[in-house]
Amino acid sequence: MGKSKGKQRKQVTLPPELPPEITEDEIEVSDEDLQFVDENTDYAGFVSRLDTHSITRQVTRVEGLSEDALEALYEKRRRKALEQKENEKSVVQVDPLDALPVKTLDGEVYYRTFSQIPEVAENEEGNEDKSIVKLTKAERRAKLKRSKKEAKKQGKELAKTEEVQPTQQEAVLAEVKEDLMVEETFETKKCKLAELGMALLADPESNIKSLKEMLQFAKDGDHSIVKLGLLSLLAVFKDIIPGYRIRLPTEKELEMKVSKEVKKMRFYESTLLSAYKGYLQKLLALDKQPIFHHVVVRCICTLLDAVPHFNFRESLLGAVVRNIGSSDDVVRRLCCATIKSLFTNEGKHGGEATVEAVRLIADHVKAHDCQLHPDSVEVLMSLSFDEDLGKPEVQVGNNKMKNKKNKKRKNIEETNQIQGNDRKKGKREMMAKMKEEVAADYKAVAYTPDVEERKKMQSETLSAVFETYFRILRHTTQSSVASSEANGSTAPGASGAHPLLAPCLSGLGKFSHLIDLDYIGDLVNYLKRLASGGSNSDGSAQKVQNMTVSECLRCCIVAFKVMRSNLDALNVDLQDFFVQLYNLVLEYRPGSRDQGEVLAEALKIMLCDDRQHDMQKAAAFVKRLATFSLCFGSAESMAALVTLKNLLQKNVKCRNLLENDAGGGSVSGSIAKYQPHASDPNLSGALASVLWELDLLSKHYHPTISTLASSISGMNTAQNQVYLSISPQQAFINLSLEQESFNPKFSTQKSNNKRKRGTGPSTLASINPTSIDENEVSKKLSRHFMLLRDIKENERVRGELDRTKSSLQLYEEYKKQTKSLKHKTKKSKKRLPVN
Amino acid sequence: MRPLDEKETTAVFEKIFKFTGNNLKNIVENPSHEGPDQNPGRYCFRLHKNKVYYVSESLVKRATNVARPKLASIGTCIGKFTHGGNFHLTVECLNLLAANAKHKVWLKPTSEMSFLYANHVLKGGLGRITESIAPGDGVVIFSMSDLPLGFGIAAKSTQDCRKLDPNAIVVLHQADIGEYLRMENQSEQLIEE
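Structure tokens for the assembled complex are given below, as produced in the milestone run.
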């Protein structure tokens, strides 16, 4: 049916135009006809099954009409067509789809998506018309009318002809009507919404009252209408909210006589504010319903992003922060993005919202006992602070300075007072008062962010951030202690037990230069406890922990960062963390469980960046790293070797390890024998051992590693040392990237490397197999595949040959058998007569 | 020469524990390879004329051959009991402590000399310091090239050190290797006694 309709639609545009309404005229049936039909149902039943369209088409071919009549008919048709067109036009004007795009530039696309989809759906179920052809709304409506009429007509006819099933027809009819009603009301509401919105946007001051009307839509029963209402209100609010905070006039002010314009303005502002308040209340109420959750969150986030300076920011912030740890990905991402943009664009709200948001997040974390999604704390990373903020000494100094100044001034004043008389003093006081007032006024008007206020806000923010971080740390340590007390009865859920630790540690690393000196001791203690959590180093096997090696390593890194960024003057030796690292290296497992990047970073920060180490410690690390690099992938061992080389370069005495005499001689210290299982690097006696690992490593399959290992082992004799500029992290990344494309069997590449060995580590790192001519490769590959295809072809042909051969054989056998059979039968036949 | 009684042992161990913490275990369990025995022996503490010695077992056995009044010294002298019954560590135990030290302070080269003349360690002379030192802890003092110079008692915690002015005392002097020169006569006398 749909197809035929489409065809018809196309034909409508052709010259002898067919007005579809023409059928209706003919439907005017006389009573006689009816009677006739009723009486002779048997052979008049075909009427109902007639293809009216084709008939009418035939009928309206205007053959047997006189010229006058023909003219009249044409005129009539023309008029009708015009009418139809007008109809269409009027519809188009009201259509929100075509009317709104003027304002869609600011990203307001919801109208379209929300209006079209439900309508199409309803349309399809409404009139059972599954036309695939896309039509504009006007056309669709026209078609709807037509089909409605047709349905009516058919219904009539059917009612006349077949009285057998009228109930069914009626039911269908009612359904159709209902659907149409619903659709129509939806349509009208939508149009109304669009009209109101447009009017508001065009002239907000005069149409401000219609905000309330729009707000009424949000209380509608239809979900989609509510959604539409919310979104259109969002668009309107986003546009008309002024760039300042509205302060409602006090009663005293209300009593004052004001000009007409001010009155108007006041009315406008108060209406806007009350409507906004109502809107927000509606949003917050709807937030609890799962159907509207997404829409509401989107609205709230957009509002907060667009107008963070406006009234009722607190409730918006509260809603956003509440959803920041949501399990729904979309919602969480929206909220996080909003908060981040709030942090980065502080100019919009002068930093107040930042403080509030951070405070709220801190409370949120507290309320949820640190069991949240990592994203909710990660947003704090996008905060930015002024350089000189975190140092309270500066602030104190400033205050002191100010105090001193004040004192000085006071002193001067006092001296002046002593000198001058009372009148003068009064005058001076007056002057001072005036000055203060002027200054205050100026400050209020200037709208430049006050430096001190800004500082105050930032330090408040900072304290909230660190409160959050410390809470997380403390919670993690406590929970780990608790779990160790439970003796592993609860299955260690890897990072699941403390999801916030990773973002917390990275945040601490980022803001480490801002931490107050008083906290550093506690912080380092916590970190130490956490870092030692992962290892059962002191033989205490009951210390079952759920800290992964990467997390422990991160703790060490953060501790070092904190120390380094705060104490340039005082060189603190974080021995416990070295012990941890020394043991963690053994527990490291590459692959999915631990991240090599973290290990490389730890090696860099803890071993390479430190200027000096104990000889014993350095030797212990050298030995352990050499052992480590033997048993892991090329990337890890490369990072370890680079660190090792760095250590050997800095600690000349440790090069004794490269000599070929076990025992270490005089430098070996009190421990005469190397103890590979010692947990303390200072007690391992590594100086008594020999770095035999390097010899093995120089036969490593990876050319870069083998060259590096042999260069290290030749370090003692080499005259001029080339200092490595590459960091372990860089080395790790280089090799881990290369790993995918690296082919150990490539002999040509190896020779390449050997040739380039003399040029230094930088070129070694840059060698990769992509430098081969691509054309040649493609040629070779094509040849290879050609060969493969030939082989396959050959196989196939051979298989066919075999099959035919076997079938031939079978056939021959069959022949033989039949022959023998024949023979036998012949024989038997022959025998029979004999018998 | 006799083994320490219980009271003396606690006094000695408490003192050493201040410096070495849990590494005290290593000092006690340290295997000795002295003497003809194939199996490594142990080290033990012996009291002789109010002085405490850290001696390997095999040496103790052989020292029994010497008459008590004639025995001037045996093994490593690590300290002495005062008349009041307190135990004091002497500079001779420095190597033992340095190998197992928990808290360390490294001195800048400029302030090494001052320390070797029995002065306290000032903040200005601090080259490097182990974190998490509490006031009252025993601290071993090293030169920047990891040569043990002496030991003392921490006057301030590591945290407090940061805010100190350069002239404040960080470590109170107890013993330094300068004593070997300064008190040469005294120690000779002691041995002669």
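Chain A has a mean pLDDT of 70. Residues 774-834 of chain A form the longest helix (61 residues). Further analysis is deferred to the final report.
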